[in-house]
Specification:
Structural Genomics Hypothetical 15.5 Kd Protein In mrcA-pckA Intergenic Region, Chain A, 3 domains, four-stranded antiparallel β-sheet
């Protein structure tokens, strides 16, 4: 990725942002610039700018992140998959941590798409006329758990409709730093791109912000662990089940952080990777050390249920908690209360 920095001159003030940038760049088309702006790749004096029609301000510094060109077609790769179910229309897998879903800068290969192209070779009639798997939802690279992928055009359309109308049963398990108060409830808060950081999402101060999208998460604490401090008796950590009404980018991570219970290991939406806790002894030291060194957000897509878009059969699939979260949960459970 390269970053282009431009300072608006007096004669350029008032122009559309996409026209202004396109006039300065010879190797990036205006249509490409417009897409990048909408994706949050442009800042104006350090603030995210996602409207290509925005008027240019004299003297303002505009910075545009331009990703490196992507390969035309992902290559099939023989990567083992943990398959939970497969028929002629669908495949459900238990995605491991560290596997990106799509090829992208920093992860051009080794992705779920690369693995599926190899696994389903010769079995993909085509999605939109191209032999490729139909991705209808995503998990973050470091989030584990159940994913469904369409193998046919009919399944892709059907799954897309189910996700669009939220006719999907989805349950996630998360280990959090502290515990939400109350221990069960609903987070109904819009999500938008964070100001000044196009890779990060946030609950905006203004719920009516133009780029804010409706987002609802239902949560409940299944277990709590340790003590945050000696006096208040609040938990130091918790195992939380989250069920989604909507499917926004980083929704659980953003909403849990918003209510004061960020995910352990999430250094994007939590100020600290580990936990704050009161206690002593070997079990306390082991738990706090393991939490502090946890290498990813402690989030797992545990359940996915839906009606098969072709056969009409009711399907439900669960993926067990991965080994790293099992070990962390056991250490947290052993902390003194």
């Amino acid at each position: 990725m390269k970053t282009i920095s431009l300072t608006a001159q007096p004669e350029e003030a008032g122009q559309r942002a996409d026209r202004f940038i396109a006039a300065r760049l010879d190797d990036v088309s205006r249509s490409r610039i417009k897409v990048l702006i909408k994706e949050g790749a442009l800042t104006c004096d350090g603030m995210a700018l996602t409207d290509p029609n925005a008027s240019v301000l004299e003297g303002a510094e505009y910075r545009l992140d331009v990703p490196d060109p992507r390969p035309a077609t992902p290559e099939p790769q023989d990567i083992p998959l943990d398959i939970l179910f497969e028929d002629d229309d669908l495949i459900l897998i238990n995605k491991p941590a560290g596997m990106a879903v799509h090829p992208a800068p920093g992860s051009w290969d080794g992705t779920l798409v690369n693995a599926l192209l190899h696994h389903c070779k010769g079995e993909l009639p085509g999605i939109g006329g191209v032999e490729r798997p139909g991705i209808v939802h995503r998990l973050d690279k470091d989030t584990t758990g159940v994913m469904v992928v369409a193998k046919t055009e009919a399944a892709h359309r059907g799954l897309s409709d189910l996700f669009a109308t939220h006719d999907i049963d989805r349950a996630y398990l998360a280990l959090t730093r502290g515990a939400p108060r109350p221990l069960s409830g609903k987070v109904d808060a819009p999500i938008a791109r964070a100001s000044g950081d196009r890779k990060k999402m946030a609950v905006p101060r203004n719920p009516d912000a133009p780029n804010a999208r409706h987002a609802v998460t239902h949560y409940k604490a299944l277990e709590t662990y340790g003590l945050l401090d000696k006096g208040a008796g609040l938990p130091a950590a918790a195992l939380i089940e989250c069920r989604l009404e909507t499917g926004r980018t980083h929704q659980i991570r953003v909403h849990m952080s918003h209510i004061g219970a960020p995910l352990i290991g999430d250094n994007t939406y939590g100020r600290h990777r580990g936990i704050k806790s009161y206690g002593s002894g070997e079990a306390f030291i082991q738990a706090t050390s393991l939490a502090r060194g946890f290498p990813r957000q402690a989030l797992h897509a545990a359940l996915l249920g839906f009606v098969h878009p072709v056969t009409g059969e009711a399907l439900s699939f669960e993926a067990p908690l991965p080994e790293d979260m099992v070990a962390l949960k056991a250490a947290l459970s052993a902390m003194p209360r």
